[in-house]
Description:
- This protein is an alpha/beta fold.
- Among the domains are: 1-67; 88-161; 394-488, no CATH class; 503-695, Ribosomal Protein S5, domain 2, CATH 3.30.230.
- It is 35% helix and 21% strand.
- The strands form 10 sheets. The protein has a 5-stranded mixed beta barrel. A 5-stranded parallel sheet has the order 10-13-16-9-17.
- Helix 3 (33-44) packs across helix 16, helix 17 packs antiparallel against helix 18 and helix 19 crosses helix 21 (587-598).
Amino acid sequence: MLELDKKLLDLFQGYVVRKDVVRSVKGGANVPVFVLEYLLANSCSTDDEQKIKEGVENVKNVLRKHYVNPDEANLIQAKIREEGTYKVIDKISVRLDASKDKYWAELSNLNIRDANIDDRIVTEHEKMMMGGIWAIVDIAYDSTMAIGSKLYPFVVSKVRPIQLSSFDMSRISNNRKNFTNEEWLNVLLRSGGYEPESEGMTQRMKMLLLSRFIPMVEANFNMAELGPRSSGKSYVFKELSPYSMLVSGGQGTAASLFVNNSNGQIGAMGKWDAVCFDESTDELFKDREVVPLMKDYMESGSFSRAGKSGEKSANASIILNGNINQPVETVLQTSHLFSPFSDKISDDTAFLDRIGFFLPGWEIMKFAPANFTNHFGFSTDFFSEMLHALRKDNYTNAIDEYFTLGSQMRQRDTKPVRKTVSGLIKLLHPDGKYTKEDVRVYLEWAIEMRRRVKEQLKRIGGMEFWDTNFSYIDKETQEETFVPVPEERGSGLIGDSPLPPGTCYSATSDGDKVALVKIEVITMAGNGKLNISGTNSATVKEDIKNTYNYMRANEKMLLSQQRSFANMDVTVQVTALLGSTVQSGIGGAVFAAIISSVFSKNLKPALGIIGNISIGGAIERAINFNDKVSILSENGAKTVLVPMDNLAELSTLPTTVLGKTDVPFYANTQMIIRWRLHAWHKPCWFPKWPYSIITW
C-alpha cells in the first residue's frame, strides 16, 4: 500500500474509499457515484481485502433490494401498497404547499410527487428543501390519507440521508498540515477518480484537471473548456457532486435557468453551486432570451425577468463545455478558439468577455483505464461537502500581499484572475496556509487562463481588446513578469522570409471584426482574363477589379515594354486567415502582389499593406487603421505600409505595435514598388523609374 493511502486511512477513516472498488460496483448499477461511495465508505474504508470484498457484496445487496430504477416505479409502488411499508434508495425533495399548510415530498425515480411527510422530518433534513437529497427512505401506504375527495396514500415515515447530513470542515483544515503540497494535490485528483501518477500525467496536466474543481469552490466563476471527446469534461459536474447540475445542449430556458414567470419559481441559477452546459458547441440555449439574461448574471451575479420576481441574486458558477474537432493550431490559423461554440455566443464579445477562465482541454489526454486511480481518495459525498463548504472562504486579496497586476489588465481581467487564485488556494490550502511562491504559481496560471479569453476577443473584436500583454509585478523586487499563452507562441502567420512572388498580406475590418487576409496572385500566358477566387463579396471583387483595371490602363508605366496584361491571365486568390469575412480595402496589397507575380520578384519579408486603390489610381484612407495594423503586427508583420492619409492616426497605435513594426506611408502606387519590393530599393534617376528599377 502506498504511504499516501495509509495516511488517508489513518486520518480520514470512514471518509475515504478505494476508487477501483467504486468502478467495479458502478458498472452494474445506474446510480450516482456519490451514492455508491457513501455506501462503500461505511464498509470499505479499510486496507483489509477480505473486509472490502464483504463490504462490496453488502452494498450490492442493498442496491439490488432498495435502489429504484425509473422503469420499476409502478412495480415498487405496488409493493409499497401490498406490504404496507418499504425501504427505497431515491432522491427525495420537499416543497411547502402554503394553500394547504403542509409539506409534500417528491421521490424522483419512484415517480411520486405528493407523498405525506411529517414536519419533524423536514426540520431534521432541511436540505430536502434545497434541491433534494439522496436517501434511504421508509415509505408507508395509508389508504385513509385524503384531502377532500383526493387520496394521498404514500407517507414518508423515515429518512436516512445517503450524503452527509452535517460536515465539519475542521477535519480537513486540521489534517492538511500532514500532507505536502504535492501529496494534497494527488489526494484531490484521486478523489475525483484521476490517477496522478499515471503515464503522461505532467504537473501541468494535474493543474488542468484540478482546475475543473474551481467552479465548485468559487462562487460566480465563469469558465469555458474546449477539448476532445472522452476527456472527462462533464464528469465532474454530472457525477461528483449533488451541488452541481449538467444541462444538456440546447435545453436551457429562461424559466428553467432563472425564473418561471408563471409561478415565480427560481431556476437552476438560484439552486446549484455550479451549472454546466454540456455540448455547448452544438446548441447552447433553447431560446434567445437566455443570452441577455446570462450576460447580466455572469457580470453581476443577479438576474431579473419581466414579471413579479424582481431582482434576484445567486452564486452558481457557469461552465461551458464543448468539443473541438480540429487541432488547435488549425483553428487558430483560420478563426478563433470560440468559433466552435454555439452560434448564439461564438462572436458575441460582450458574452465572451464575461468568461474569466478558458481551460485548454485539448491538452488533456483521452482517458484510458490506466488514467483512473486504483488508490484511496475521499468518498464523493465527503469531497463534495468539502468543496461546498470552501465556497464560504475568500482569498481574492491574497495577490495583494506579494504582487501587483500589470497595467494592461482591466477590471474584467483582474476580477477572474483574483477568483482563480482564490479558488486554487481553497483547494490546495484549505487551512489557509500558503507561501509567496504558492501564490506566484497560481497567479501565473490564472493570468494565462484569462489571457486566453482576451486573445480570442482580440481576434474577434479588434482594438477594444488589444491589451493582452498581461503581467504581474513583484512588490519586493519590482520585477515585472509577462505571462504567455502556449498556443499563441507560434501564431505568427507572417514569416520572416521574403514573401513568395505574388504573395502579400493585408487586413480588413467592418468596424467590429478584423480579418487577417492573404493575397496570392498567379500570372500566366493568356488573353487578359482576371480570375478572382476565395471570396463571394461583391465589394471585395470590385476592389480587385478596380485595381486591375487601373494597372491595365497604366501598364506602360508599371510594366516593361516586353510585358502586357493583354497577353496574360491574372488569378487573384483571397484567403481569410483570422477573423471573419474579408471586407473591402485590399487594393494596395493586390497591386503589390500582381507586380510581384508579373516580375517573379519576392516582396519584402514580413510585409503587410493596407489601403485601397481607386480605378483612377488614388490611394484611399484605410478605415479602422488601428485594428488593421495591429492584427498584422501581432501575426508577424515587421513592416505595414499604410496610406498617407492615415498619418495623423499613427500616434494612436499601441506602443507594443510601434515597438516591433515599422509603419511607413505611401501616397501613390509608385511608392509601393519603390519601398516595398524586396531588394528593389535602388534610388531611381530614370523618368520611368519603375521600369528602371526592375531592369538595373
